[in-house]
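Section 3.1: Structural characterization of target chains.
Under the original work plan, the team committed to producing a structural model for every single-chain target entering the pipeline before any wet-lab resources were allocated. The record below documents one such target. The sequence was received from the expression subgroup and is listed exactly as submitted; it comprises 564 residues.
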Amino acid sequence: MISLEQKMLDHSASMVLLVDPNGLQIVRANRLAGQVLGYTVEELLARKIIDIESSLPDVFYWEEVAAGSFTEIEWQEGLYCGADGELIEVSKSISLIQHEDKTYLLVQARDIRQERKTEEQLEQTLSRLRATLEATGNGILAIDWHGRIVSMNRMFSAMWAIPDELLEQHKDDAVIDHVSSLVKEQAACRERLSAIVDSEASDEHFNLADGRVFECKSRPQYLGEHIVGRVFSFADVTRRVAAEDALRESRDELERRVEQRTAELQSANSDLQAEREQQAALIARLEEAQSQLIQSEKMASIGQLAAGVAHEINNPVGFVKSNLGTLQRYIADIGKVLNAYAEIEHELGEASQLNVTQLKKELDLDYLQQDLEVLLAETNDGVQRVQDIVRDLKNFSHVSSSEIVLANLEMGLDSTLNVVWNELKYKAKVVKEYAAIPEIMCAPSQLNQVFMNLLVNASQAIEEHGQITIRTASSADEVRVEIEDTGRGIPPENLSRIFEPFFTTKPVGKGTGLGLSLSYGIVRKHHGRIEVSSEVGKGTRFTVILPRHVDYAAGDSAGENGAK
């Protein structure tokens, strides 16, 4: 059973070794000593103290002890040798103990390796702090809660011209008196430097007797929750204050001049008010007339273009449709003749009847007569679709505009939304996510047609009600316009064909297949590209990407071939 004495030793915060001077044998040791040195307590009791204390001064000391010279030691540093040969820095004390007419030496030691590391780290931190204080452009002064100066940098002593003898003798009160004596408001300065335990930060100006102005900022220094000092930062703001004063005087003078000028303008304005009111009515009438004129010119241009397209396409379509009507009548007449021949077919000879019957079977005459009617009907429907395409081209006729100007695409998007709003409002919620993209050189009316086609297609892709999102973005080289819908999406097998002319997935008679093809051509002529991504059942996103800087060479303008 462990004795009470041993338990007390084991609970000590220090290593404890009891040494017999006769032979220097360790006769008692606590558990902590064994843990630090790497021995068991039993192993320590089998060793001498000189096996543990290995530095030369320690060896000489124990030789003197063995010779009968006992000296107590009050905490000094030494080296202990661990079981693995590692030297351990310790702080130790040695006391004499008399027990049963016998003298023993009680050795108490603490492992100070961690303290050394902490001290080194603290020294490095203090070194960096000193370097930081010296590197700053402000004068720094730190005072503890006793009123003693604990730190100041060279800038502070230079700003306040503190004499060298005060710095060398560390006369803190004299330094503070010297600083206060240079300030016009000496009492306020002294009070501020004495308010060490004030928990509030301060920011104030001190006017020096030599005309300089120092800005003083101070903050309390905490240790845990307690204020242990205060740090003051001084900056010479003489020039800034002078500039602010000059600016304030200039502003006051400017305000006086503005008031004077305002009075003059008000007087002149009252004289012009009557004339302005007379002109307002005239301007309103002129604006109304101008608006009507511009609208008339737009309508005339669109009508002229539509008429030209209709003339070029409707002429051949017209005579094709006319010829189809004539052909339909001719075939009806031929049918009558064939029916007449069929009525007298029995009057032919047996050999002739057999030949005719064989020929009718080979040609499948009954099917041909029935199919001719279907073919003519489908051909008429095809011609009608061509006429519908002409009508669509009339609607898209403003694509031919070739004027290249600096334009805002977001404004064009808004204008296009207004045009097609009736198509969108019942089908989708429109969300605009504009990024204020820069203006670019382009044919805006053509790009508006592209946006119109994409918006209408997005609306038609939504079966009941969904959302259409319009986004814009820009980089150093490009601008981007995204139009995304939550419609039914485009199957992968159709995605590669959507820009082909006349390709459409809409029911017969519901679409011409020209919208995306025209849009693709317009964007290409603007040296841009259209990207598309789609997922069936979730929606489609079209992205129009245009360069910000394009030199439209002669003969290669955006409008010259943009609608082909």
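The mean pLDDT is 82.
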